[in-house]
């Protein structure tokens, strides 16, 4: 039985899905105004690994992760670049797809975008006003946190703690609010900003509302798992819960999962420290699979310390596992021994996706394989376990090797050594390579 550390209850709980063998999960995605940084990548890799383990266990996973494409940062970056907010976000969505593909992250079931959910967002906000949970103030719409049950329970805070913290605030927005803690569901348009028509005048949604709307529209009023970085517990996820449960009267998510931070050389990563690394830049020098392996093999809730040595170690370890995977097969293997590795892997991973322990099992198993235990059943099991960590296997035959064999075949034919030429052709065919004799020479394709 998979156990999940649930941030809401601060305890390890048995995972029981709403629908047998199905997991509906919603993971907060990036604001697409720049290339993703290593912290975004950590979150994406952590939840992709969790998804892959659910799939390894036989679950069907509906994996939804949004793109925030309406936001102050996007408006600012688009103005600076002299392009529209849509052009800017399109560019960084494409970059996100490319970077995450290199990290071996499976495409989400859906990546909803805010601009495609404007009608649903307006309808959701209208319902909150009708139900008395929200109010209009000079074209803005605010959610009344005082009406929310257990507000900020997720972040282990009380309304009283938060009120003390907010008591000194003085600014124009705070003046419009009934309570400084109330948060914006809708923001009236400012001069020159992108906006949409609404019953409260032209404006755009606040940040938190998009996830409540897209999660419930796509996955229903109650979802199995909602996740994201630990920095999202408050205010983002706290506010998502408040507005979703106010609207539907139902529990928004049954399990809340949060991944830990990334430190660089033991320091918190930040733009001001100059250690803020984009994945796009990092992939110029570090192999995507190595980076993936490094990120995936740390337990997702623990902080990660990113160092050059850690990347080097990941490279060495990944190479060992991949070399083990490509070993030639041996005679039949003791199935009971294989089962002990499968069981140990499951015990490790069922314990809140403890990939650090899971990968230890893989190394023990690799050692056993290297001592001559590698039949078809072992290879199949080993490969499935490696895939949980996002390790993929390149075509066994490299292009260079194919070209070399084709040259040898051409030389054999020129020497009228047809037996050798035919043998090479058959060898290539066995590897799925088809040869085509054309006027320009020999062409080849993979079947
Ligand atoms: Zn979100």
Automatic annotation (TrEMBL):
E.C. number(s) listed in UniProt: 6.1.1.16
Keyword Metal-binding in annotation: yes
Binding annotation for ATP: 271
Chain location of the short sequence motif 'HIGH' region per the record: 30-40
Annotated ranges, domain Cysteinyl-tRNA synthetase class Ia DALR: 344-398
Keywords of the record: Aminoacyl-tRNA synthetase, ATP-binding, Coiled coil, Cytoplasm, Ligase, Metal-binding, Nucleotide-binding, Protein biosynthesis, Zinc
Cofactor note: Binds 1 zinc ion per subunit.
Entry's localization field: Cytoplasm
Keyword Aminoacyl-tRNA synthetase (UniProt): yes
Cofactor(s) this protein requires: Zn(2+)
Catalytic activities: tRNA(Cys) + L-cysteine + ATP = L-cysteinyl-tRNA(Cys) + AMP + diphosphate
Pfam families (UniProt xref): CysS_C (PF23493), DALR_2 (PF09190), tRNA-synt_1e (PF01406)
CDD domains recorded: CysRS_core
Binding site for Zn(2+): 28, 211, 236, 240
Sequence motif 'KMSKS' region, residues: 268-272
Coarse class of the protein's main subcellular location: cytoplasm
Gene3D superfamilies: Anticodon-binding domain of a subclass of class I aminoacyl-tRNA synthetases (1.20.120.640), HUPs (3.40.50.620)
GO MF terms, alphabetically ordered: cysteine-tRNA ligase activity
InterPro entries (UniProt xref): Cys-tRNA-ligase, Cys-tRNA-synt_Ia_DALR, Cys-tRNA/MSH_ligase, CysS_C, Rossmann-like_a/b/a_fold, tRNA-synt_1_cat_dom, tRNAsynth_Ia_anticodon-bd
Coiled coil residues, start to end: 395-422
Family assignment from sequence similarity: Belongs to the class-I aminoacyl-tRNA synthetase family.
HAMAP family the record matches: Cys_tRNA_synth
Description of how the protein assembles with itself and partners: Monomer.
Name the UniProt record assigns to this protein: Cysteine--tRNA ligase
Organism the protein comes from: Streptococcus vestibularis ATCC 49124
Gene transcribed to yield this protein: cysS
């Amino acid at each position: 039985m998979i156990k999940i550390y649930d941030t809401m209850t601060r305890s390890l709980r048995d995972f029981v899905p709403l629908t047998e063998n199905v997991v509906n999960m919603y993971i907060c995605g990036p604001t697409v105004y720049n290339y993703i940084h290593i912290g975004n990548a950590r979150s994406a890799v952590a939840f992709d690994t969790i998804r892959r383990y659910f799939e390894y266990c036989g679950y069907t996973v509906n994996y939804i992760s949004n793109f925030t494409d309406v936001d102050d940062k996007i408006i600012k970056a688009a103005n600076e670049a002299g392009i529209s907010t849509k052009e800017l976000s399109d560019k960084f969505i494409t970059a996100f797809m490319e970077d995450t593909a290199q990290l071996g992250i499976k495409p989400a079931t859906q990546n909803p975008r805010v601009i495609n959910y404007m009608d649903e967002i307006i309808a959701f906000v209208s319902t909150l006003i009708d139900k008395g949970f929200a109010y209009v103030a000079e074209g803005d719409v605010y959610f009344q946190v005082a009406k929310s049950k257990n507000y900020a329970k997720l972040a282990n805070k009380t309304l009283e703690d938060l009120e003390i913290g907010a008591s000194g605030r003085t600014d124009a927005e705070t003046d419009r609010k009934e309570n400084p803690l109330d948060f914006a569901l809708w923001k009236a348009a400012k001069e020159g900003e992108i906006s949409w028509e609404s019953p409260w005048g032209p404006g755009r949604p606040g940040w938190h509302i998009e996830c409540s709307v897209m999660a419930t529209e796509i996955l229903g009023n109650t979802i199995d798992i909602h996740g994201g970085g630990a920095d999202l517990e408050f205010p983002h996820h706290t506010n998502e819960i408040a507005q979703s449960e106010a609207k539907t009267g139902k529990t928004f998510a049954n399990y809340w999962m949060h991944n830990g931070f990334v430190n660089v050389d033991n320091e918190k990563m930040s733009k001001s420290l100059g250690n803020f690394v984009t994945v796009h830049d990092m992939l110029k020098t570090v192999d995507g699979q190595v980076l993936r392996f490094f990120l995936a093999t740390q337990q997702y809730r623990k902080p990660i310390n990113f160092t050059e040595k850690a990347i080097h170690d990941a490279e060495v370890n990944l190479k060992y596992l991949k070399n083990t995977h490509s070993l030639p097969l041996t005679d039949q293997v003791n199935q009971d021994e294989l089962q002990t590795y499968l069981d140990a892997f499951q015990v490790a991973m069922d314990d809140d996706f403890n990939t650090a322990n899971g990968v230890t099992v893989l190394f023990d198993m690799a050692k056993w394989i290297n001592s001559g235990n590698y039949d078809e059943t072992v290879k199949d099991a080993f490969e499935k376990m490696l895939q949980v960590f996002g390790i993929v296997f390149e075509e066994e035959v490299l292009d260079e090797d194919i070209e070399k064999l084709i040259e040898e075949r051409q030389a054999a034919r020129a020497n009228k050594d047809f037996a050798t030429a035919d043998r090479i052709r058959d060898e290539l065919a066995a590897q799925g390579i088809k040869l085509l004799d054309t006027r320009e020479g020999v062409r080849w394709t993979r079947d």
